[in-house]
Amino acid sequence: MLTAEYYFYKKIKGGGYYFFKRGLHVIKLDSRTLFLLSIFISLTLITTWMDRIERNLLGIPEGVMLENIEMERLLPQEVRGVVEEIAIRYQKTPVEPRLDKETGAIIPEEPGVSIDVEGTIAQIQAAAPGQEIKLVTISFEPHHNSREIADAQQIIAEFHTWFQGSAARCQNIFAALRSLNNTLLWPGEVFSFNEVTGPKTPERGYFPAPIILNGAYEVDYGGGVCQVASTLYNAALLAKLPIIERHPHSKPVHYVPVGKDATVNYGYLDMKFKNNRNGPLIIKTALQNGRIYVELRGER
């Protein structure tokens, strides 16, 4: 195979062949092959020459940098490709303020950032030799701010129920209350008990305890969480929140009046309500002195 390491050392014409020698290596080329090779080399040189001229005329000036990336001699389509790739890496969506689920502390909002591709390209193309270009960024503010949460601390409604039962039932109630505590609901959002508390599995801290199924008592993981759902349901009623989904038990329960209970079963039966207020709602829960407490807080 002929490679760039070979060069013309001696040319001998004889027998209809041209011989190119280098040391002990000999390459035989006939007239047609030599002609095609000459054309290929010429076209390569012309293409390289034309590319260099195009980059000198249309490319980015010498020494131009974009965020420590060399842009020198890049053509317009190459500049766009570099900027678009950087834009994907730098893009950041805004983060809404939220509550720490453990402490209830307000976690501030974070603005989002995107790259103005066209604006950045325009600056690069207008750059002087040796100029350092910064990305042109666009900032996006979240829909809500921390002040809204700080103002939503008045008790809008509260409800409590007395509880009793086995240690397993108490543990299930505690696990559900812990999942609900410090839940934040923005205006227009729909609360889902099942979505917030999740599957009632051993891995999530739930134990087998009595449940009501088809009018009879059975034992299953998460027994007791329906009392938590019912307590929250009654608080939502007192707050005059629209109830989106609610299901009664197949027999009366002792902890709330008839018609005021809410049974749940992950993946099948849920309890949902909507925040129809102008500001956020915060769910606060507690378990003390034999009672389950639920508070709904907001701005009066």
What's a quick, concise take on this entry?
The protein has helices at residues 31-58, 76-90, 117-125, 146-151, 167-180, 193-197, 225-238; strands at 11-14, 17-22, 25-29, 65-66, 69-70, 98-99, 106-107, 112-115, 132-133, 137-140, 154-162, 183-185, 190-192, 208-213, 216-221, 243-245, 272-274, 281-288, 291-298.
Order of helices and strands, N to C? EEEHEEHEEEHEEHEHEEHEEHEEEE
List the total number of helices. 7
How are the strands ordered across the major sheet? 11-19-18-12
Which percent range describes the beta-strand content?
25-35%
Taking all residues together, what is the mean pLDDT? 87
Number of domains: 3
Can you give the helix content as a percent range?
Answer: 25-40%
Properties at a glance:
300 residues; alpha+beta; three-stranded antiparallel beta sheet; 30% helix
Q: Could you explain how this protein is built, in words?
A:
This protein has 7 helices and 19 strands. With 300 residues, it is of the alpha+beta class. The strands form 7 sheets. It has a 4-stranded antiparallel sheet. It has a 3-stranded antiparallel sheet with strand order 1-2-3. Strands 5-4-9 form a 3-stranded mixed sheet.
How do the strands and helices of this protein lay out in sequence?
Elements: E1 11-14, E2 17-22, E3 25-29, H1 31-58, E4 65-66, E5 69-70, H2 76-90, E6 98-99, E7 106-107, E8 112-115, H3 117-125, E9 132-133, E10 137-140, H4 146-151, E11 154-162, H5 167-180, E12 183-185, E13 190-192, H6 193-197, E14 208-213, E15 216-221, H7 225-238, E16 243-245, E17 272-274, E18 281-288, E19 291-298
Parallel strand pairs: 4-9
Antiparallel strand pairs: 1-2, 2-3, 4-5, 6-7, 8-10, 11-19, 12-18, 13-17, 14-15, 16-17, 18-19
